[in-house]
Amino acid sequence: MLFERIESEGLAHYSYLLGSGNEAVVIDPRRDCQVHVDRAAQEGMRITHILETHRNEDYVIGSTELAARTGAEIWHADSQLDYAYGNPVADGQRWRIGEVEVQALASPGHTPGMMNYLLHDAGGRLWGVCTGDTLFAGSVGRVDLAGPERTEEMAGLLYDSIFERLLPLGDGVLVLPAHGPGSVCGGSSIADRPWTTLGIERRHNPRLQVASRQEFVEQTALTQPFPPYFAMMERLNLEGPPSLPRLPTPPPLAPEAFQTAAGDGTIVDLRDSLGFQAANIAGAVSIWTPRLARYGGWFLPYDRDLYLVAGDGSVTPAVRTLVRLGYDRIGGALAGGMEAWQSDGLPSGSLMNITVPQLRTLFEKGGEPWILDLRTADELENEGRIQGAYHLPLTDLLARMDEVPREENIFVFCGSGVRSTIGASLLARQGWRRLTVVMGGMEGWQALSASRR
Amino acid sequence: MLFERIESEGLAHYSYLLGSGNEAVVIDPRRDCQVHVDRAAQEGMRITHILETHRNEDYVIGSTELAARTGAEIWHADSQLDYAYGNPVADGQRWRIGEVEVQALASPGHTPGMMNYLLHDAGGRLWGVCTGDTLFAGSVGRVDLAGPERTEEMAGLLYDSIFERLLPLGDGVLVLPAHGPGSVCGGSSIADRPWTTLGIERRHNPRLQVASRQEFVEQTALTQPFPPYFAMMERLNLEGPPSLPRLPTPPPLAPEAFQTAAGDGTIVDLRDSLGFQAANIAGAVSIWTPRLARYGGWFLPYDRDLYLVAGDGSVTPAVRTLVRLGYDRIGGALAGGMEAWQSDGLPSGSLMNITVPQLRTLFEKGGEPWILDLRTADELENEGRIQGAYHLPLTDLLARMDEVPREENIFVFCGSGVRSTIGASLLARQGWRRLTVVMGGMEGWQALSASRR
Amino acid sequence: MLFERIESEGLAHYSYLLGSGNEAVVIDPRRDCQVHVDRAAQEGMRITHILETHRNEDYVIGSTELAARTGAEIWHADSQLDYAYGNPVADGQRWRIGEVEVQALASPGHTPGMMNYLLHDAGGRLWGVCTGDTLFAGSVGRVDLAGPERTEEMAGLLYDSIFERLLPLGDGVLVLPAHGPGSVCGGSSIADRPWTTLGIERRHNPRLQVASRQEFVEQTALTQPFPPYFAMMERLNLEGPPSLPRLPTPPPLAPEAFQTAAGDGTIVDLRDSLGFQAANIAGAVSIWTPRLARYGGWFLPYDRDLYLVAGDGSVTPAVRTLVRLGYDRIGGALAGGMEAWQSDGLPSGSLMNITVPQLRTLFEKGGEPWILDLRTADELENEGRIQGAYHLPLTDLLARMDEVPREENIFVFCGSGVRSTIGASLLARQGWRRLTVVMGGMEGWQALSASRR
Amino acid sequence: MLFERIESEGLAHYSYLLGSGNEAVVIDPRRDCQVHVDRAAQEGMRITHILETHRNEDYVIGSTELAARTGAEIWHADSQLDYAYGNPVADGQRWRIGEVEVQALASPGHTPGMMNYLLHDAGGRLWGVCTGDTLFAGSVGRVDLAGPERTEEMAGLLYDSIFERLLPLGDGVLVLPAHGPGSVCGGSSIADRPWTTLGIERRHNPRLQVASRQEFVEQTALTQPFPPYFAMMERLNLEGPPSLPRLPTPPPLAPEAFQTAAGDGTIVDLRDSLGFQAANIAGAVSIWTPRLARYGGWFLPYDRDLYLVAGDGSVTPAVRTLVRLGYDRIGGALAGGMEAWQSDGLPSGSLMNITVPQLRTLFEKGGEPWILDLRTADELENEGRIQGAYHLPLTDLLARMDEVPREENIFVFCGSGVRSTIGASLLARQGWRRLTVVMGGMEGWQALSASRR
User: D252 vs B21: CB contact, 8 Å cut-off?
Assistant: First the structure.
């Protein structure tokens, strides 16, 4: 039997490839899907089926692309929606893949139509369940996507799915969720366990330690931020996204050509925070490649071409992430990076920065820095606050930018320094000038405090 | 957290790499161990600990090599043995790796000193156990390695380890064994489930469906063949094997140079069975690369140089397998393969072959072919017999070769045609001439019968 | 400066990638052209120009595909033809690529519109010339493609191009031809020199050692076989071939599914000759992957799906070759290869074979075998003949098959055994049964004779 | 025939692999030599010979390592020296490699014992010459290594070697030098031509455009800087360097462990200049990986462990360069890079920077910045000067550091900003504080001026 969990890095999204005999099925394929085709072919297997757990909102699903490359049947879960492709799944439906069987298990809650998939081995023994966004390691799916007015209803459904449908399958069954730690969907609450089971979740998942359905609903029926790109993802996943014959190769553009072309587009600076601080192009949005999946959808437009600035390495990982988020308009990449930009005598800006030991010294000397803390409310609660800091979560920054004074020296603060640089870049392109990034952020602050004790 | 199961293909052996923070541990490293070093370094982790589950008998463990490359501590399990390296593990011993903890759990049975390792996550929650050769998916470790006189004692210990120490950990705990399906150790009885848990094994492992310790002992205290290379492996794993600075690259030798050099060595023909049947060098032992891990140790000498004949591809996969079995004396590879051999006008032999439809026709016409069936007794019992076939398991062939008549036309038979070609090559180098391989073997025979119905 | 010669293996075709600053040009791109895009992007260069030396007849050129991926301009050479894409080149035309310059040099002969391209460095110094099919290492282009009636005219033009336009550029200029040794176009006459210059060719190219234009014309105005696929290539290269968004992945098919599907198609057995001899599917055409570029176009149809049988390795190299020859209809690949075929109990045929020592013994014992020699007339002349052999070049076999007696034991013979197996497969699918392949062929025969002396 | 030029990136050093039949020779192998072994084996060739052109001074040659892996014979050129390994080459000596021949041609000048190697094809035709450090594209080898008192003598010998031995071989012969553009040996004078010939060099190499031996000697007998590591290279290449069984993998160290360990070593910051400017560890030497081959030998000690700080990517390219320069003492790498350093709350420094447009504005406003220009005298002459700048070549900085005032604001300047950052890091670790790097350097300055016109 072939079984692989394929991670889309950054998104922390998992696709699953299951094969037996000469057939294979992919559950929730990613858009840059040739990896599935190649892996199956390498094992002498043809992908015959594609199963979706639900209409995803956080990435573009690869079902139509993979079907175009393999001829596989597509089965989508949210049968009440009006998909432009594929067939609707019925609860209890079964598919034969070589010598093994996969069976659908309706588990509404995250979405009304969510399906989970039971995996049996050749002897008919259940060994795993693809839980989609129903159940994660240490967490459960959010229930506010159907609208704020339905969160209680959906939380109740989620309780029933988990407690009445999943847990009774038995402690020994592996839980194969659609997301791992670091996902937008599960947030920071997804636990860092490589593999998990219904038994481990039953005992250790904090969301399942409830005395009643009512208690679960009260704890789970929360509203979370709804990134602007979710609407685009939902539409694409309903209509089927544009064909992506291969990963795009953005044309490398010499600095002046880049400058000219980018005039009508948006510059995305993918370098790490320090490189951006030292020198950056006017108007560029800083998003370090490893954070692109998490923050790209908040700050990048779909209706303008993107122009990429990368560091030492290639832009391929960023391009891969962008197309997974539906950003197909990539106009070019800066050939030679910022070194070439400087060597062509072009102007650039910079951001000041400060280490946490320096920040502490500032406090110790009686300074009262205007600190802009971009972390989430949860982080503030769990990891503590900096005295006097002004709290404005990064994802609200565009909407609430006016709360940041222009005439003050702003010390931009977050967990480690990455979000501060994103935030500072957003402020800088709107004209803020007196910006200092606190490197290390709360992690550094706490480490420093610990080392003092 | 970093967690990877690294398979040594062919051996169906699993090493495990577990990392947290900037540290990592490898459990049962393979000898060609750079894969562990590279993977850890890629994640910013240093391998600080090497844990052995037991003194292995079926492959050369990579502990000393990996320690030489990383400075990691070695901990070996069989503390009653006199190892030339490393430190002995005590039951209950704990190690901290970054933010997680690993704990030893004595589980004798397969060997007297077998240790299993409990894996906890950063919150101290047990999520998996490395079961070594104690418990496999669908099977348990063999208990006859300490000698035939101790099998009942060892089977009893194994029962205690599984039923009193492992299963009480809870159904939800992942079982991470040292072997997957296809292993020499677990034989064909290891189930083809990608991942498993204590709960799945408790319910579905046929060896655990017993009413009492006594019943388990009766069913498990069996003696199985003891391949000749096991003794070498045990010695190397006690003394520490010779250093292997990198994977050897056997020098490509032109046909005549190969012929000359191989005069004092053993030729191993790694091509698939059909290629060997069509043309082969006198005296060559046929072992198709994918079966080298399973049969190499039975038929290849340690005290002579090996000379390799490969097909289209490279010899690297075979070399990798050979060094894992402790075969460090690889004298060369035939440059240009059998095509070059023929183009140099050198002599070769061939084997006749027959398809299963042809064999059936032969029977239908009243023929009484002398069939040599090289399958195991288990296979005969489970998959049926060919009428009138003479049974002689491949692994006994060298010892019992005289039972095969020289003057008959011998139809060599096995499960699919691979072992028949190995067996025919062994017979041919001892002078048997009238040899015909039955392609497809019992699989083909049964498929043919099924299609008839 | 970036400069790479990219070989299309098998075809022995060379594309050239030349880059400077942030721009690059590709001369005669191959159809699976992403390699050019990636390599240029890796160096921070954008492909801005595509230059064709001529309307090629032996492979599908990648100009339209590469233009679709990069936006580069296409310039085709044969301006008198009616191309459906691109712009016609004028003699002497210049292009600036970053800091270097490329200039067209008309050099008719192989085709009436052939263009060569002069490469200058940043200082304006000529250092190389892309000679297309005008001049090769040790050979010149064939002149019969414009029709047998024009060979003398074309040979004269070729003389002028080489002697009056190329050689006067100076001995030190590198010759960068469109083909290396092993090409269909230059045949076996292309010399095995890794790189060459006008000086080396002037002195050592046997075709240039002539006293007069007349002598050159007499020696060069020859008619050679015209493979049937050339017509297809010429049409595709005029119209622009179908889009090839990525290399196809033929679906792996289980043996019975393969058998059924292949009923309406053509089976191509890509394994080496020995594997084919030992067992093969009825009707399969044997072409070993490394010879597919050379012989595929002679024996495979464009209007039926191809079904592939591969050995140990993957079918990717074969697929790559097939699409370069315009074979886009690839229906599937046999999952599990011939081993799976046998294990499913399906019938197969085989070919007898014989070594050259055995053939000699046959002669020595007075045998008079009916030998079918499939080599070319040139080979017979240069490398000798086997006494009594019947000569019929492989590429004429389909047309002249009736000359081969059906009732005789046919010993099929060639240079090394590969073409004999191709030929034997063609005969077998037309019903010939008494076929024996002579392994090693003339190479083996000569080596054997040499070792006797 | 197999022929490959293998570049050691950064060093711009070329090894050559030449194979024929089943044998191969490597000329000037690099120390991390498995690439040669693998490439030859892939072609079915065994490396039987290793030829050195001369006792190299700028990198560690891989002869003994490659011999240990292949059993090949080593032939070294400088027979008057007292090598601890290999056999001395005689002028005119010949070796047979498969069907081709290589012949030694003494060509003293760069070193007294320099040998060049003539490459013939299977027909005995000379097609190329490995010129070592005798002749490069657009340049010739330096003649001052035997000591300043012998430069004239050596320049005369070099003239004789080039004009009397090489050029008479004929314009058409390919020139295959030991270095390409970017080498320490040939300096910036090596031309950017991908391949060259004796004819091109005869006509276009500026060093060969002389009227007499005397003129050549006058122009060539120059003394250039002698990097401190040359002495170490010469010793290692005479004695045979320590065995390098495989590329080292520096252990990743968590920030505090790195800080502690590096206390007795030297920190090398491999990130690009901008990253270093934004934040760096006290005492770190900045050398961007792509410049490590050029500047590492000037500024890094052999007798202390090196500790590496890398950016996004891996340290492997840097490690490869370091071992080529004989730096085998690599103590570790900073796990998680500078992000982890900040997140652990550790202190760091930074450098100020300025763009060239800002520098111009400074001048325009009447500022008189103290500019430290680290370029070479040649660069100043060829590319111009900045008004009022103080010239001190980077490679002299350690010796002449006191010339830089401590109390001034120093604007560190070079060609593009890389060397300024190296220089600033050297100054900073000696206590200079008021340092500003001019990004873009002279390239940017000139581009800015050009855009103004």
Answer: no
Average pLDDT of the residues in D359-365? 96
The alpha carbon of residue A442 is apart from the nearest alpha carbon of chain D, in Å, by 8
Which of D45, D249, D253 has the CB atom closest to B252's CB atom? D45
The two three-digit tokens of residue C292, written as one number: 């597919």
For the stretch A368-406, pLDDT in tens is 999 999 999 999 999 999 989 999 999 999 999 999 999
Residue A338 and residue A212 share a domain: no
Q: Count CA within 13 A, CB hemisphere, residue A257.
A: 17
Q: D295 and D395, same structural domain?
A: no
CATH number at residue A61: 3.60.15.10
Judge if B232 and B259 occupy the same domain: no
* % of chain C residues with pLDDT over 70: 98
Query: Measured between beta carbons, which residues in chain C are less than 8 angstroms from residue A70?
Result: 249, 251
Neighbours of chain A (3+ CB pairs under 8 A): B, C, D
Please report where in the chains the tokens 């519109």 appear, as a residue: C113
- Mean pLDDT over residues B301-320, rounded? 93
Q: Do D252 and B314 touch (CB under 8 A)?
A: no
User: Taking CA D233 as the corner, what is the angle to CA D217 and CA D333, rounded to the nearest 5 degrees?
Assistant: 135
Last residue of one domain, picked from the residues C216, C239, C262: C239
* 8 A C-beta contact, residue D416 and residue A342: yes
Q: Are A36 and A47 in contact (CB under 8 A)?
A: yes
Three-state SS at B324? helix
Domain boundary among C312, C343, C374: C343
**Full-prediction pTM beyond 0.80?**
yes
Contact: B246, D251; criterion CB under 8 Å:
no
Whether residues A74 and A175 share a domain: the answer is yes
Residue of C274, C386, C412, C435 to mutate, testing the B interface (most B Cβ within 10 Å of its Cβ): C274
* Residue D311 confidence (pLDDT): 85
Of C128, C194, C200, the CB nearest to D172: C200
Tally the domains of chain D: 3
Q: Which residue is it, tokens 């056997």?
A: B250
Q: Cβ contact (<8 Å) for A22 and C257?
A: yes
Helix axes D229-239, D292-299, angle to 10 degrees: 100
Judge if D339 and D357 occupy the same domain.
no
Q: Could you tell me how many residues make up chain C?
A: 453
Q: SS3 of D137, please?
A: coil
The shortest CB-CB distance from A194 to any of B3, B170, B198 is to: B3
CB neighbours (10 Å) of residue A9?
Answer: 14
Please name the residues in contact with A54: beta carbons below 8 A apart, sequence gap of 6 or more. A77, A78, A110, A111, A113, A114, A115, A132, A133
ipTM: 0.94
Q: Residues D392-409: pLDDT tens digits? A: 999 999 999 999 999 999
- The boundaries of the domain holding residue A409 are 352-451
Measured in angstroms, the CA of C123 and the nearest CA of chain D are apart by 9
Token pair, residue D298, equals 């000037």
Same domain, A186 and A294: no
Tens digit of pLDDT for each residue in B45-72? 999 999 999 999 999 999 999 999 999 9
Asked whether D119 and D99 are in contact (CB, 8 A), the reply is no
DSSP letter string over C239-270? H-PPP--S---PPEE-HHHHHHHGGGSEEEE-
Helices (H) and strands (E) in chain B, counts: 16, 24
DSSP category for residue B98: T
Q: How far apart are CA A440 and CA A442, in angstroms?
A: 7
Whether chain C has a CB inside 8 Å of the CB on A169: the answer is: no
With contacts defined as CB-CB under 8 Å, which chain A residues touch D440?
Answer: 342-345
From first CA to last CA, the distance across chain C in angstroms is 54
Chain A residues in contact with B118 by the CB 8 A cut-off are none
How many Cβ atoms are within 10 Å of A407's Cβ, its own excluded?
9
